[in-house]
## 1
Amino acid sequence: MTGKEFSAFGKLMSLLVDMEQDLGLTNLSDPERRVLSAIAAIAQNENVMVSSKQIKNGAICKELADATYYRALKGLIDRGYISVVDGRKTGLYKLITTS
Amino acid sequence: MQSIVTKYVLQYTTLTFWVTLLYCTSFEMANGIKTHLQEPILPQISDFVALVFLPHGVRVVFTWLYGWRAIGPLFIAQIFCGFFLFDVTDILNLHIWGAAFVSSICIFIACECLRKAGYKVYAYETTRFNWKKLILIGLLGSIVNALGNTLVFRVYIPSEDHLTTVLNYIVGDTIGTVIALFILMYSFRLIRSYSALLNK
């Protein structure tokens, strides 16, 4: 996937997650949705991998307390929305795609 | 310079491939629904209209994601469906070309109208976008599409049926957009469940 294609994928995924939430089909918390949207937005220019610092410093997640933010990240990993980049424990994340 | 051109050609070809594949698949699905459900239950609906027209959802999603760059691939996809799936042998059939033109630009026109009204509509303009707005774009686009297509096919549609055909187009395109979004949503859920399973 190229950067642009990945960005489109992220934006679409973010929109569909909001749709699921509004229809009561998923129980993502607001911080989790914010983190997911932030990753999708950042991926527009930064290709597939997004650092924790980029997510946390972005406009969407700036207001989140550290503990809430990390809980949201863990929640998204556990539910299969994002994953930690291979070979790392934390710090660099990517949206889970089919390819 | 050459590598940049090659890169853009490759990106555009990939986009065209995906749009055409999804468009034709959804076209076939809409055709199946029309043949097996719509025609037996509602035979009075014009033959030109599918009441669940899924390809409109493909138009909405790709135009929202790529803006004017989606027009070309959508036009090619519509032509492809028009000539191959319907087995139209007359390649100079102006109605098919006209319908393809209208169908490929209808969402773009709707988006540009909303932009003129001060809204940010394309995916690359916003960080978060409400899915209900996407359905609104689909609805506005369906009005443009309905008027355009009824005009293009006016010789085949009796004049007293023009208004009904326009309304049927709008209903079909809008229902198609909603159902296409649901299909996408459930497809993404499936992918996620599978990925989460693999990660465990």
## 2
Amino acid sequence: MTLSSKLLLVLLLSSGLWGASAALAPAADDPLPPLPASPHAASVTLLRARPFTLDAPTVHRYRAEQPQVRAGVMLVLAVADRDLLVARQSAEPVLYVGAETAARVNHGAGSGRVVAWVPAGVDADGRVALDLTAVPIFFGDAELPERIDAAAAAAQLRAARAAGARAPTPEVVAAALEPQVRFADEAQLLLFASDLVEQWAPDEADLVAGLRAERLTR
Amino acid sequence: MRLTLLSLLAAVAGGPLALAADLTLDGGRLDVRKFMASPIEVSVSGTPGLEASVLIDLAPGPVSALGESFPIGFTPAWNIFPVGTIPPGGTLTLQLSVPSDPAFHDVTVYAGAVLVDPGSPSGLDVSGGVSIHVVDRDLPLAGHALGVYPWFEYVHAVNQGQGVELAVEPSRLPELAGRTGDIYVVADKTRAEWIADPSLVDVNGAPLNHSFSGASLQADAVLIDRGTLSGAAGTGLGVGYDVVVDLDQDGLLGGDDLIDGYTDGAAFWVVHDLTQPGPLAVTEILYSGGTFLGQNTFYPTDIASMGELPLVVVSHGNGHNYQWYDHIGNHLASYGFVVMSHQNDTVPGIETASTTTLTNTDWFLGNLDIINGGVLAGHIDGHRITWIGHSRGGEGVARAFDRVVDGTFVPAHFTAADIVLISSIAPTGFLGVASATPHAATYHVWTGGADADVSGCSSSNVLQTFQIHDRAEQKRMSISLHGVGHGDFHNSTGSVASGPCLVGKPSTHTIMRGYLLALVQHVVNGNVPAKDYLTRQWEAFRPIGAPLGGCVVVDLQYRDGQEVADRLVLDDFQSEPSTAVSSSGGAVVGTVAGLLENLPDDLDTTFTNSGADPWNGFTYARPGDSARHAVFEYAGDAELVFSVPSALRDLSGFDVLSLRAAQATRHPFTTSVLGDLTFDVRLTDTHGNSSTIDIGSHGGGIEEPYQRTTCGTGTGWANEYETVRLRLTDFLTDGSDLDLLSIASVTLAFGPSAGSAQGRLGLDDLELTKD
């Protein structure tokens, strides 16, 4: 092989041919991880908790009863077993706060961080009334949340407690709790949540961008 | 000269008793379909010596008069023609020519013979009736040669750069033998344009002079274009061309010239690479109308100069994002569609996802004036809406349609009739027949054989993608892609694939772009050549840039619905539960083994082959669904014969015989030989004539199941149906005497004499249809 041929070969290898080789690399298996067998026992740590109210009520779509919601708590959670968080088209483990389903904002499999909100009542002073030291935050059996009613949620709580799930300690809650805020509607709530996703699960940039799409009004 | 019956009676002068008069056509037929300007033999039989006349009319009888039953209706159009005296042999035979006049197209002429018979009480002897259905000389001419019988495939679509051939079956036009003509390939004209201007201008500058020996279709087939024709149709699909065989070489269409494309469709269309972007620049915008009303919309940048464009709504799956469908948005918008991919609330479940499909469609249509400054206002055709859903979104769009039909959701800005196509990509199956059904909407499904999420395994109904397809009551289609994972269908990271020979995202998107464009052009815009990309075997025909080979294996299903008025279902196994009776009421007999009809639902949770589960691998239904298929096997020559009920035997009005079949996964008869399974289809008429076509004649056969493991033991994934479509007139090739006016049976012949030596097959939707 002449010097010029060698040089040409080097050039080819370093440019198009290399690119071609990469393009010809076979696609690889990337199946979903199996569902963890015992979701109730999985470690879920409270990182942030922001109580909120809504001027315009929304529907809690994560419950069969589809209740109207005017207040709740936005949560940031750390989940050790990320296989629990992988998005699936089949049923996924449902996130609960006590005997209430939580509405997921993100999936969090890449970061291990979940942003979600849970409905709550308000007291006479307009303060969101949810004692996070009283109930565990846990993942329940795989199901479609819109199929879960009060009885089913209560059963999941019993199962979680039996599996050893414990409520966050007062110290954890105190460290996580932030001042209550007020939003006009769920869209504003989710816009706020986009900041949390960006902070805690930065790999979900498309979700953030989607939540921040310019709001059109008349 | 028109005579009257009275004048005939006046000629009666007594005589010997008359033998029964008889009138037949073309050697004994009573009903014929004839091209204009083609020969026809008319035979009048009766007592020798009697004077004969022929009555014609545009309505059949019978009409009773003078004590006789006349086989015409005696409309103002009736006429009578003396034809001569019955010769000593008893039969007077006339060689005539069917008139050539565009006004006669699709006209049926009824006729009967009248003999002056002095021995008859009425003085007349009247025959039974015959009918002549006259059609213009528009017949398929263009296509491609095949290496096996029927030796030629007539097609609608030709990929740009591919040659085009012409062929005529000599037995259909015997008068062509020995003739020489000029073959023109011309720009397509409508029927009215042809009548107004019959001049012939060849697109290549000059016609091709060709002589027809009449020896055989193969001998007379000729290349009429080497691939020079343009398929540049702008935002359309296909540039149409007509083909004329100018037999009198006068440069005009007329007389006994042949034409393909005389109707308002072309003989064939040349189609560019559908995988490539269209000519229009595309604008992409991102905005939100509120909670779960985020929308990513793609539209032609110059939409202000356009009319109303069809709308495509994309509903993503769980954990997916509405910004992950650029490959769909950019591609379709470049061809003149508007694509709106929306934020889909899938985590709670299918009902919630269906709500966001509905609310986003409604919000979009109701707020065009504020989206991007109102640029879309007045430019969206709200009556041509396509819903595409992925995963939970794929089931969600079916659920959404069901809610509109059931009235449980009343949209403000559209109705069910405005949803002209529902296409589900790897849909889940949470809800079942009562809630996730497309009803009578045109429905389509995409399945990835390597899907590691909605995997297709029989372990759960939730994972089975074909169930909604089989609930579709009317037009339905599918595309199955071996080696394609769940995530390959969107344009973010991750294939979510498991299995051998994975295809990957780039090739999957290439396939998607080409096929999806054909799908929406055909269903939404009524494009004719696009249908070829939905029905023809992928191995033989696909968009120019679409891959083949390596890991790419594509199976297609296609079934017409009520939009095709003429459709005869011979057997879809939906009624008559006995395997001995078809759903059309005809007898079914066969020598195949283990013939069963039932719900196409794997009875256990694996694809492991088991004698206890004759429906192994079938994932098309669940308990409560109404779908019914047949399954059987063979290990040598065997047949399955479907008798055609006597009232249905005239198949001449149909164009295509269609069926769908699937190899049964992991069965020893399937795994013993890995490859396409083929068999023969044989038509037999009431006279005992038969003609047979190998389903593999057009390339391919019934695909081997995707060689994926798990879901039990063994190798092979879910049973995948493929639709086989055979043109009925192809059964007439090589001078077959088959009489399409009187088909007695359709036989499926299996075994080494007919194709693959052994196999186990699912079978469904055996029907005749117009093309």
